[in-house]
What we know:
Blueprint: E1 3-7, H1 9-20, E2 26-27, E3 40-54, H2 55-60, E4 65-69, E5 109-121, E6 127-129, H3 142-150, H4 157-166, H5 173-180, E7 195-198, E8 201-204, H6 205-208, H7 210-215
Parallel strand pairs: 2-5
Antiparallel strand pairs: 1-4, 3-5, 5-6, 7-8
Amino acid sequence: MTKKVAIPPMISDIVASGITDLDGFLFDAADRCPYCGGELRSHDIKHKVFARIDTDIINGGALSGTIADAAAASDGDDNGDSVNGSGDDNGDSVNGSGDDNGDKGTEHGRNITVNVRRWRCTACGKLVYSKSPFYDGIRTGAPIADFCMVNRDLHPPNHIAKILGKMGIIVTPATVRNILQSDIPELSNPENIPSVNIYGIIFPSSLLNISERIRRGR
């Protein structure tokens, strides 16, 4: 039987506007070196893709709707769900440097990019990233990773990707699966992530208050 999930328009609008507001934002908060406690000196700025948005959905205002998942009990087939139609996670893979300087998007998609300052420790010489909305080893923005994790027991990866897609956030099912399988301490206990259940979808507070929470530090 087909499983349908409704997304309140107001929630979609809040999430979409919060994400787009972050485009170009600079994260440069840092304390002392986490390795030796030494003083930090500005080194450079890295551009990182926080999320990929569907410009047709967000600009068209068609953010509400109902998602049908014909295979709610399984992962189903990924065909047709990938960003580029190839099934590959360009710019979204869990493993990697976390830096993405690729193209700014296709006809219907655009990368929301944030800037993260890196610092060089004057004592031990190590590079240190400023506090930013990313988990170590995951390129996708932390609030989106939170969304995937808190919904893992309610919806399969392909359905989670469709829910995010209905809100204008482009994420492949393969990326969702990688996030769910990641070994990130902050995500090891999804029940500890502050969230609220709205019509069968769990929304983490980090996604609902995305702009405010991230700008003041995650």
